[in-house]
Amino acid sequence: TLNPRLHPASAGGRPLRLTWSLGFKGHPRWSPDGKWIAFITAQDNGNTDIQEVSVEGQSLMTLTDTPAQEDDLAWSPDSTQIAFTERAGTQTRIMSVDVKTGTARRLADTPAWDLRWSPDGKSIAFVADLLQPRDDRRENTDIFMISSDGGTPRLLTPGTPRFFSRFSIVGMNS
Predict the structure, then answer these.
(1) Quick count: other Cβ atoms within 10 Å of Cβ 93?
(2) In 10 A of CB 46, how many CB atoms?
(3) What is the pLDDT of residues 20-63, one digit of tens each?
């Protein structure tokens, strides 16, 4: 069975094993302050959660422990929070967790991916298909932004094409 562990290494140095438990670990993300690595871990039941480990491997914390699937984590610029997506059944939401207390907050009830914090930590940008999510004719997704305190997503890419369309080449009709 696949059993990866986290092993950071300095240039030319030997890898340092940071995790020892069984099960899949992936999507490692360094905290901006360089002290922690957050990652997704799969439990025996297939559920995914978020954990963080100190770069020395001395401290491991479980930040989420829910029946939902957590994914797509992103550190806040001040290294105090992690934004992530949480999927339970057909419901997907954007969440954040305080890494000191483990307190999770719901930011928006929306499917999303590719979460990114603004440099000042006040907003989170993400990719989603919120305008016409059930239309298979869509040719693109859009970029949205929410406050890091939560709220209604704001469209940042207005005016993008909603559907595939016929086109013509100069001198030719379609």
Answers:
(1) 18
(2) 8
(3) 565 667 789 999 999 999 999 988 777 899 999 998 878 889 99
pLDDT of res. 2: 38
For 29, 55, 111, the CA distances from 144, given in Å and listed in that order, are 22, 33, 11
CA distance 88 to 106: 13
CA distances from 75 to 101, 114, 121, 126, 147 (A): 15, 12, 10, 13, 15
DSSP string, 107-134: EESS--EEEEE-TTSSEEEEEE--SSTT
In 3D space, the residue among 85, 136, 140 whose CA is nearest the CA of residue 113 turns out to be 85
Tokens of 98: 């305080």
For 115: left if phi > 0, alpha if psi spans -120 to 50, otherwise beta; the answer is beta
Residue 60 amino acid letter:
L
